[in-house]
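Researcher: Structure for this, please.
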Amino acid sequence: MSVQKTYSSEKEIAEIWKLFRETDRKMQETSREVKETSREMKEGFQKMRESSQETDRQMKETDRRLEKLDQLFNGQWGKLMESLVKGDLIKLLQKRGIEVHYILRDEERQGTWKERQWEFDIVAVNGKELVVVEVKTTLKTKDVDHFIKKLKIFTKLRPRYKNSKIYGAVAYLKANADSDKYAEKKKLFVIRATGSSASITNAKNFKPRNFEI
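Model: Predicted structure, C-alpha cell format:
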C-alpha cells in the first residue's frame, strides 16, 4: 500500500466522521426543536382547554343571570296582573265613573284578523262600556302607539261590542321617557302599579277617548 493511498483513506474517514458528527448535532438540535414544539403545543392545548372551561363557566353564569332576570320579570308581571284582575281595576274604573263589572275570559280576549293572531291583556266590561288594558313592566311611547292601533281593531275581533264605548288603559311598573304622560295625552287611562296595588294617575277631570268612534 502506498503512502498516498493511506493518506487519502485517512482523509476520507475523517470526512465521514465529520459528517457523522454534523448529522448527530443536527439530529440533537432537531430533537430539541421537536421537544420545544411539543411543549408549546401542550401549553397551547392547555390554554385552549382552560379557555374553553372559562367560556363554558361564563355561559353557565350568563344562563343563570338570564334565568334570574326571567324569574324577576315574570314575578313582577304576575304581581301586576294579579293585582289588576283580582279587583283593583274594576274598583279604580268605577271611581272614575266607568261602571264595568267583570273581566273577560282568556278566550274572549283573543282572536284572528287579517290572518294575524291578536290578544289583549285585560278587558273589563259592563255591556255598554268596556276598558281594554295593555300591561307593561316598562312602558315606552312606542308601546302606547302600538296599543292604540290594536284598540282600533278590537270590535273587528269581537263584533258584539261594536255599539259599546271602548276606552283604553295602559298599566305599568315603570315608565320610560314620560311615556305615561304621553299615554294620557292620547286619552288613555294610565294605571301605575305600586307594590301589590295599583292607582290611576290621570288628572281628576280626565276624559277618556271612545276608540269606537
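Researcher: Any notable elements?
Model: The helical segments are 3-95, 141-151, 154-157, 179-185. The beta strands are 102-103, 110-113, 116-119, 122-125, 129-139, 165-175, 189-194, 197-200.
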